[in-house]
Predict the 3D structure of the following.
Amino acid sequence: MNTKDALLEKLQNKTASIAVLGLGYVGLPFATVFAEAGFNVVGIDPDASKIEKLDEGVSYIQDVPTELVARLVETGKLKATTDFAVLAEADAVSICVPTPLRKTGDPDLSFILAVTRELAKYMHPGMVVVLESTTYPGTTREILLPQLGEDNELIVGEDYFLAFSPERVDPGREDWTTINTPKVVGGITEACSEVATIWYEGALETVVSVSSSEVAEMAKLLENTFRMINIGLVNEMAVMCDRLGIDVWEVIDAAATKPFGFMKFTPGPGLGGHCIPIDPLYLSWKLRSLNYTARFIELASEINLGMPRYVVRKVQDALNELGKPLKGSRVLVLGAAYKPDIDDLRESPALDVIGLLEQKGSAVSYHDPFVTRIKEDEFELESVPDLMAAVRDADCVVIITNHSEYDYSAILDAATYIVDTRNALGEMGRKSPKVVRL
Ligand code: SAJ
């Protein structure tokens, strides 16, 4: 039996041992899903506190129930360690490490490079390796292939198998999960696609095999670039409607009655999160290296990055109506997380809005039920303890993130003036003389 067939047999009868590199919001759900499916899984993460929690049977990721972790750890199906040496025993390895941007706006592949260097030490015939981290097209072939195979004199597609499969984890979402979200898989060779697909079919409901790692890498970037550009479009629609004196929210609701050929996006104070603002810039960076300018991405990014300043101008105009300069006025920012009902501050436009308000000399405070403290280079703030007192005290309230738990009717009654960047107040806001919307 050749190497590929022997590995396929272990994957199909679930005797293959699995290693997951990186136990964050992608890696831990992945590890528990494959352990639950019957594989023996070891998670590897340099953060010893994560390992300690898992050893105690405790989950630190909202989508992964602690009782599931406890059961899998108890039965020995899931183990966790900081020691990469366990890779010597692994048959199948999933790489789920962060791919952020550097301060310069360039891709930061340091996490991928670090784990690839470690994994390369333990590569042996009969392994399949799948990169899940969002990255530019070509990363799997240009970065991983040389180190994992060529340096170890292993032939890809024969001795070992290498593929890319974009993560599609949306933290907090309950309808689409790691198990039931269709999963795209593309290998360096056809045999790589086949082996990775058969591995994933051992635990995931729908696996979509594509012809190469580049197709899989690019599919992910299309998914999130599509979203970023459409958000940029609707943000520009908001700016244009403002110039035209037309209510953009009514326009969008009217357009959304079209049952085909339209997808609703809504304007906002900017683009937050660790995916949408960042993934498309991996693509535009790669194309720049090929002397091509990804104009849609660059334009949408410019528009989205300009929204916090646009919001602050709206606050300035609102205070002007009250005869108050922005400088010295009390402004309360409602909602700091990058989207409703979560505590994630990454790339949140609230941080830009607060920073700009501070720069202009206004007395800024914020409230967020999920974010108790914000610590940035430029400022450090705590969520105000008494929301309604802060609303009453503010010269202007600006709704940045429309958390579900806010009582918007009470906030409208108590506020002097509101800039509503999310249409959180809906019809109440449209009718109120003390509310201005994007
Ligand atoms: N946003 C708008 N207007 C919109 C939609 C979003 O301003 O119409 C803003 C949000 O306020 C936020 C940012 O864009 O600041 C990103 O929002 P998001 O809804 O795209 O949420 P994310 O960043 O959590 O995106 C994730 C992505 N999932 C993966 O990459 C696996 C994305 O592909 C999903 O489409 C998205 O979740 C989702 O649909 O919830």
User: Anything to note?
Assistant: The mean pLDDT is 97. The radius of gyration is 24 Å. The chain has two domains: 3-211, 225-437. Residues 3-211 form a domain with the Rossmann fold fold (CATH 3.40.50.720).
